[in-house]
Design goal:
heterodimer; A: alpha/beta; six-stranded mixed beta sheet; 9 helices; 10 strands; 39% helix; B: mainly alpha; binds adenosine-5'-diphosphate; binds magnesium ion
């Protein structure tokens, strides 16, 4: 059986600058993969290619659940299966928390309003903020906003969840509540690709850790292998910089 | 002859009042229809300007820049007096509405564009990641946020359209100004003109005050 997410020879350039230099990566269904690496190494670009928020060079190929990720009709199918959580939440500021979650099910799936409302409330309970449903995003703390963003993505019942540094914009005391929700999610069998600087989370939750630098995957393996006994020099120096920080 | 009798002659005003009201009705029709058509045109132009194929974007920009440069009176006269040479003869109302719409549409396009561009890119990305298509993203996410930004400048634009309807009197449109000048000629007294001026102010003052309030609340906003 082929892997759930398959990335072949992924290249992406911004003008003359090559941000991804031929990435090959296979991710199984239900796997939790954490991507680490220095700033500018191409982590965001990599996961943004998976749902084609960035387009990529011809010759590159990405498949999700065997559907090719390319412009056109199949892209809608891919995006329906792939949820994304951003560093800056990107909640819809003109909609209440409940409406933020209801919007995509209603508009993409055609879920009736009442049903979408029930779904939203169930998801808000799951991420622990049921009582905030009628507030607007600006009235919530950063940690609460990010939990709404996770609930919003889950409303489309994705098979894959992409996280791009979901806790980097948060005050330190709010990081835990978001990581707890993600840990919960990981145990439900959703495939997760998480760009993060939270080494504790990576070592406890990830099935596999990928270290990137300069647009390439430098090292990949279990959290123990990559985080505790890295083989590559660049991984070692990155980790010592992060841990002594 | 004292000044009140000359400029505020109640007897003349009362006698010519029905004429002024007829003119006002036409001014309002022309203004409101041109504003609505201009908004629709402006939104369409803004979307083309931002998202169409490159050559169409360029053409849209040329249109917008030309119609923001041309004096409305010149355009109006071209539409009314020159187009008939091409076999296109529009009524005074249609000529005035065409000219007003084309110009106010160009201004509205720039306002909409600025409003859409002021919505952070993350909103487009979040919508795309949720699987929403372009139309739904615009209708449910981007435009509702852009509208708040564009209401003060669009209201300014609408005020200008209503003021500019007065230019239509040069193509024999019986609008408020035209009726007032005719009434003045009939009565041999300028009171109807003063009456018309007061009517314009009474109609537009609330809108002007409304924009000032919004601009104070949101801090800024740019008019024409
Ligand atoms: N829109 C863009 N235009 C030009 N260069 C970009 C753009 N986005 C990212 N880059 C460059 O691509 C490289 C990888 O960026 P990114 O994937 O955001 O890195 P990371 O998420 O690992 O910090 C960086 O050098 C960055 O400067
Ligand atoms: Mg990044």
């Amino acid at each position: 059986m082929s892997s759930f997410i398959s990335i072949r020879n992924l290249r992406k350039s911004y003008g003359a600058f090559e941000a991804l230099k031929g990435i090959n990566l296979d991710i199984d269904k239900g796997e939790v993969v954490c991507v680490i690496g220095p700033s500018g190494s191409g982590k965001s670009t990599l996961i943004r290619c998976i749902n084609r928020l960035e387009d990529f060079s011809a010759g590159s190929e990405i498949r999700v659940d065997n559907i090719p990720v390319k412009a056109g009709r199949s892209l809608a199918k891919v995006r329906a299966e792939v949820g994304m959580v951003f560093q800056n939440f990107n909640l819809f500021p003109h909609l209440s928390v409940r409406e933020n979650i209801m919007l995509a099910p209603r508009r993409v799936r055609g879920t009736p309003r009442a049903e979408a409302g029930v779904l939203a409330d169930r998801l808000l309970t799951r991420v622990g903020i049921a009582e905030q449903a009628d507030k607007y995003p600006s009235q919530l703390s950063g940690g609460q906003q990010q939990r709404v963003a996770i609930a919003r993505a889950l409303a489309m019942e994705p098979q894959v969840m992409l996280f791009d540094e979901p806790t980097s914009a948060l005050d330190p005391e709010m990081v835990g509540e978001v990581l707890d929700v993600m840990r919960d999610l990981a145990s439900t069998g959703v495939t997760m690709v998480v760009v993060t600087h939270e080494m504790g989370f990576a070592s406890q939750v990830a099935d596999r850790v990928i270290f990137m630098d300069g647009g390439e995957i430098i090292e990949t393996g279990s959290p123990q292998q990559v985080l505790s006994a890295p083989q590559e020099l660049r991984t070692q120096s990155f980790l010592s910089a992060v841990l002594n920080h | 002859m004292d000044i009140v009798d000359t400029f505020f002659n109640t007897e003349v005003l009362l006698r010519t009042w029905p004429m002024l009201m007829k003119g006002l009705w036409i001014t309002l029709q022309l203004g409101v229809l041109s504003i609505i058509a201009g908004l629709a045109l402006g939104l369409g132009l803004a979307l083309l300007r931002l998202y169409a194929a490159k050559p169409v974007q360029w053409l849209t920009r040329v249109y917008i820049d030309i119609f923001r440069s041309i004096p409305l009176l010149v355009l109006l006269i071209v539409v009314y007096y020159a187009l008939p040479f091409l076999g296109l003869r529009l009524s005074p109302f249609a000529s005035a509405m065409t000219a007003l719409t084309m110009v106010s549409g160009a201004y509205a396009a720039e306002i909409f564009r600025a409003g859409i561009q002021a919505v952070p890119n993350g909103q487009f990305e979040a919508s795309a990641a949720l699987g929403m298509n372009y139309r739904r993203t615009m209708a449910d996410v981007i435009l509702p946020q852009a509208v708040k930004i564009v209401i003060p400048p669009l209201t300014n634009n609408s005020i200008n359209v209503i003021k500019d309807t007065a230019l239509a009197s040069v193509v024999a449109m019986p609008d408020l100004l035209k009726q007032a000048t005719q009434a003045q000629a009939l009565a041999a007294n300028p009171s109807p003109l003063i009456g018309a001026a007061i009517i314009y102010v009474v109609i537009l003052w609330p809108l002007v005050a409304y924009v000032s309030r919004l601009e104070r609340r949101f801090g800024g906003g740019n008019g024409r």
